[in-house]
Amino acid sequence: MQRSLLYLLAILHVLTCSSQLHAQITLQEQPRSADAAIQTFLAKAPLKASPVSPLDRSRIESEDARFPGDRFAAPTAVDFDLANSGEWTEMPNGDRIWRLHVQASGAYGLGLFYDQFYLPPGARLHVYTPDRSHILGAYTQQNNSRTGRFLTGFLPGDEAIVEYFEPASVTGQGQIHLFRIDQVYKPGMFGNTTLRSNEQMELGFGASFDCHANINCPEGDNYQTLKKGIIRILVVVEEGSGFCTGNLLNNTRQDNTPYVLSAFHCQDGFTPLFDLWRFDFGYETNACANPNAEPSRQSILGCQKRAGRQENDFILLELFQTVPTSFDPYFLGWDRSEVLAPSATIIHHPRGDIKKIAFEEDAVRVFPNRINWNNDVQTPASHHFIVNYDFGAFEIGSSGSALLNPDGRVVGQLHGGTSDCESTTAYYGRLTLSWEGGGTPATRLRDWLDPDSTGAVILNGRIPDDEAGLTVSGMVHTETGTAIPNTQVILIGSNGSALSTFTDDQGLYTFTNVAAGITYEVSCQKSDMVLNGVNTLDLIQIQRHILNLVNLDSPYQLLSADVNASGSVSTLDLIIIRKVILGLEPDFSPWPSWYFVPAINGFANPQNPLEGFNDNAYLLENLQEDILDFDLIGFKPGDVNDSASF
């Protein structure tokens, strides 16, 4: 028997810190332009709308007919940055405000994407509708990502204003470049359910069936812990934007590695941009009734794919950052045995709406036949569970939601089926088969959920412990002891884990909950203007060194002077620095903006630090105890007199 079933992708779309790699934390403050005194200055520079090319609706409809997902927004390429677009206004004290007004006539909403995004200390970014009824931000330096890419979410309507405030102390250090704007072409994304019909399948807040029960209704009373492991995923692919549901999973090391299980078809057939996927925690109403206003959420931006397989319809992602304990997360347990659950629970985000709950009161069964899906995928026989809900339903956007057995452990994830408020039949990829998958680490769960090959068949869920794990901390500073703020410090574990944080105003950084017994590679990154601290005084000092009139006796000075990374300081370095100062060369390639070395034993050959110095990463081998003083010293290519400003 073969069936053609609904392909449940909410495509698709829509992606390191409050002390971790980039959680999308925002400050609840108004844009600076809301200040009456500042409005006086802004009035001198009337803001003109920058048009965005309209979507080719016939092409979009044709694509949706051929690939029946449920994309709600499609991308438009743009090229807007601080230099070529918008308007700058300078305040009497030297502070500056840049505003960009984008307009895409006919769009139901706009989502803004950035491929160059760096906010220096004190800077603020807001995005809002012209009437300020919807405001996103303030975004700050805490939102800087390790990839330099970012998104500021969706606003209703066909116009949006981007406002960037830059203090005088960091003039010219910010980087903002919009490369893509997604235009919402289906109505109802922002809670207007009166437009709903079979031809207009809306997604987002308020768009799901009325028959769903919110997670905080009485039906969810016994699931208040489990719900903390269920996440809404705002998926981003090159082709557009949509929603799926994800599940935060525990692993046998129980080390808080942020693995998220979801459905393979959430990216199958598309070009995923995993660094722009957004993971929304706690997206729910506090009461049983549907709220009139959209609730808040806590989000993490960016992930990497660890494993996935089409036949089992599973994908395992690892978030770019550990989940902050302030998110109140729960790492779900799992059961890979072949014991069939006598009943099941489903917690999900239908149509990307707030968190809902559904039940199957009868035993879960294995579906014995192949399944034909309406995206031309056929899955093998006996690879799925079949479930007929007794309460609730699923919808687009529920894809990937966990099938939970009576012990609250994950046994599968939603692929698709047929569903409405009267009758629901759902098919779930079986975790027991996904465990071995296609026989390789990239196609199975085993290597990630049981990295030490313990052979565990059942694993309980857990609430992360604030005190669990080790602490690694220190300071990032210059050779003279000046703190270097807003420096990204990254720990890459030998087990594939990744942690990241940024230094504060005193140059301090801290990692907590660091797993023991693992070797970590430590590296730093800092984006900066290439000429910050580089000027003719550096040229003079380097020239005097070459002429033996004065010695650059510090290893950091020597490294700063060797801008061509040749292993020596020569007139060639002077020529390159002059070219950069004159704007004839963009940077000091292959050097990054900043380089960092450990304060202790930072050089293989201290007598000749230029010899063999070509690395910007260092090892903490087999970490067994807290390290509270792992300081790093930063130096800037071309800046031999340590004059860079922060």
The helix content, as a percent range, equals under 10%
Any idea what the CATH superfamily of the largest domain is called?
Trypsin-like serine proteases
Query: How confident overall, as mean pLDDT?
Result: 86
Query: Based on helices, strands and strand pairing, what is the structural class?
Result: mainly beta
Task: Please describe the biggest sheet, giving its number of strands, its sense, and whether it closes into a barrel.
Answer: 11 strands, mixed
Q: Under CATH, the topology of the largest domain is which?
A: Thrombin, subunit H
Low-confidence stretches: 1-22, 191-201
Number of helices: 7
CATH architecture of the largest domain: Beta Barrel
Q: Termini distance?
A: 68 Å
> What count of domains describes the coordinates?
3
From the spread of the alpha carbons, the general shape counts as: globular
Task: Assess the beta-strand content as a share of residues.
Answer: 25-35%
CATH class of the largest domain: Mainly Beta
Task: Evaluate the radius of gyration.
Answer: 27 Å
Q: What is the β-strand count?
A: 38
Short précis:
The chain has 646 residues and is mostly beta strands.
Task: Tell me the layout of helices and strands.
Layout lengths: L3 E4 L28 H7 L6 E3 L5 H10 L6 E9 L5 E4 L5 E8 L5 E10 L5 E5 L6 E5 L10 E7 L2 E8 L8 E10 L28 E2 L15 E8 L2 E10 L9 E4 L15 E4 L16 E4 L1 E7 L4 E6 L14 E2 L8 E5 L7 E5 L4 E3 L3 E3 L4 E2 L4 E5 L13 E3 L5 E10 L4 E7 H4 L11 H4 L8 E2 L10 E8 L10 E6 L4 E5 L5 E7 L5 E6 L10 H11 L8 H7 L9 H11 L13 E4 L18 E4 L11 E4 L11
Parallel strand pairs: 1-24, 2-5, 31-38
Antiparallel strand pairs: 1-28, 3-11, 4-5, 5-10, 6-9, 6-11, 7-8, 7-10, 12-22, 13-14, 13-16, 14-15, 15-19, 16-17, 18-19, 20-30, 21-22, 21-27, 23-26, 24-25, 26-29, 27-28, 28-29, 31-34, 32-33, 32-35, 35-37, 36-38
Helix pairs in contact: 5-7
